[in-house]
Amino acid sequence: MPDSNSSASILLIDDHPLLRKGVKQLIEMHPSMQVVAEACNAIEGVKLAQTIDPDLILLDLNMPNINGIETLKMLREEEVSSRIIVFTVSDNEEDVVAALKAGADGYLLKDMEPEDLLTSLEQAATGTVVISPRLATLLAQALQSNKSVDKVDLSSLTPREKQIIKLIANGMANKVIARKLSITEGTVKVHVKHLLKKLRLRSRVEVAVWAVQEGLN
Amino acid sequence: MPDSNSSASILLIDDHPLLRKGVKQLIEMHPSMQVVAEACNAIEGVKLAQTIDPDLILLDLNMPNINGIETLKMLREEEVSSRIIVFTVSDNEEDVVAALKAGADGYLLKDMEPEDLLTSLEQAATGTVVISPRLATLLAQALQSNKSVDKVDLSSLTPREKQIIKLIANGMANKVIARKLSITEGTVKVHVKHLLKKLRLRSRVEVAVWAVQEGLN
DNA sequence: GTCGGATTACCACTTTGGTGGTACTCCAAA
DNA sequence: TTTGGAGTACCACCAAAGTGGTAATCCGAC
Fold it and tell me: Do the domain assignments include residue A3?
């Protein structure tokens, strides 16, 4: 749990020790970031992610047994709040789309220039979704053919959850929502927790922004 | 600081003891609200508001020495976070507009039916701006002639503050904003505190909603 | 009739957000 | 040259948000 000015903590998940070493050395050259842990497979990676909750996770796609996409899904299942950046050799469209659909916060190619990698990671640490430039056009096409890459289905929400989203989008605090709905604040928190998970959002602020943009106001 | 299920706390500021007594009795009949303090003038009222920080303040306009509008401004000056409902006999347009401009969260007339008053107060406690129905048309006209009733001037914000508003409107946490701007989280909090005061908003969620609606995204 | 989702509640706990204060630097306006 | 706003930082403190778990009720589907 790094505080504001300490460097961004990073977990590497990759089955190639040499590559991990290289990436780690590269990152360590940069004071604003720090590799705090490494894992060579999915199980270990998920475990580490849960215990240390890093700011960023750099995740390889091609791993034995459990592949990267599966690992990504596991991390999301376990509600790891880290930003997850897929880091791989594959510029295959399906992989990119699958990764982003599974909730990746970035997709970087291993053949990037080291310097570009560093700046991309820095950006990722500040909350920006980073995609290797080479994939941009590819992704644009995918978006055209399938407009629902990042669309969450509103239908997975219960009526109560939708109701609470609207109240959040009006800027209301949990306490106020509780009073309005005649339930306890604790219960409101439960609903908020559930809808955050369903919408894959990280805070009520994101919920509010999303709802307003979606016109749910 | 009532918790979710406890009743909404109310402070009465009115120079008529009898009226206070009546209102108090009326409110006490309602389990979801509770009068926690009373004041007969502005000074006392502001002091009480600061110390007990009630959910609602019912404020009379016609008081000796310092009138209600002044009191209202003082309360806003002192950054009292309570919802302030003006409660008066005056259905004068100027008073209504002045009160709302000064930041009132509601404007109710003393000749309301007791039952209507209760429901209005309940609504106010849930964050709704309540206006006596009789004043609705009057207010609509005022809005037509002067579109800036609730408009805050963006120009009072410093460049840094505007920048941070945009980041908040992207759902970012203080920690992430700090990293992006290369300043400490504490400093981000300072800016947030200041812009909340300037915009007369109560939380970053309200800032985000406001900014998105304003197209500052 | 059982199973599971939805709703509610309560608990303890950690993290994030917001307040209040002081204090330093920089820079421009008075 | 002094003054004041803007930006930064640090501090302690309290309030709000979010997590993780258990558990009860209700209701509809299988």
Answer: no
* B105 and B61 housed in the same domain: yes
pLDDT in tens, A68-118: 888 888 887 777 888 899 998 887 777 787 787 777 888 888 878 888 888
The last residue of a domain, from among A118, A145, A172? A145
Please tell me the predicted confidence (pLDDT) of residue B136: 55
Instruction: Quote the number of domains for chain A.
Output: 2
- Tell me which residue in A3, A126, A203 faces B171 most closely, judged by beta carbons: A203
- CB-based contact (8 Å) between A168 and chain B? yes
pLDDT at B89 over 60: yes
Judged by a CB distance cut-off of 8 A, whether residue A159 touches chain B is no
Strand D-contacting residues in A 113-172, CB cut-off 7 angstroms? none
Rounded to an integer, the average pLDDT of A166-174 is: 91
CATH of residue B169's domain is 1.10.10.10
Domain boundary among A116, A145, A174: A145
* Cβ–Cβ gap A127/B180 under 8 Å: yes
Q: Which residues of A touch B3 (CB under 8 A)?
A: 175, 185
pLDDT digits (tens, 9 = 90+) for B99-125: 877 778 888 888 788 888 888 888 888
Arithmetic mean of pLDDT over chain B: 81
Same domain, A167 and A113: no
| B160 and B79, same domain (yes or no) | no
In whole numbers, what is the pLDDT of chain A averaged over residues?
81
Tell whether B3 is covered by a domain: no
A108 and A72, same structural domain?
Answer: yes
Task: Determine, yes or no, domain membership for B87.
Answer: yes
SS3 letters for chain B?
A: CCCCCCCEEEEEECCCHHHHHHHHHHHHCCCCEEEEEEECCHHHHHHHHHHHCCCEEEECCCCCCCCHHHHHHHHHHCCCCCEEEEEECCCCHHHHHHHHHCCCCEEEECCCCHHHHHHHHHHHHCCCCEECHHHHHHHHHHHHHCCCCCCCCHHHCCHHHHHHHHHHCCCCCHHHHHHHHCCCHHHHHHHHHHHHHHHCCCCHHHHHHHHHHCCCC
Write out the residue range of the structural domain in which residue A163 sits.
154-213
Could you say which of A126, A170, A179 has the minimum Cβ distance to residue B125? A179
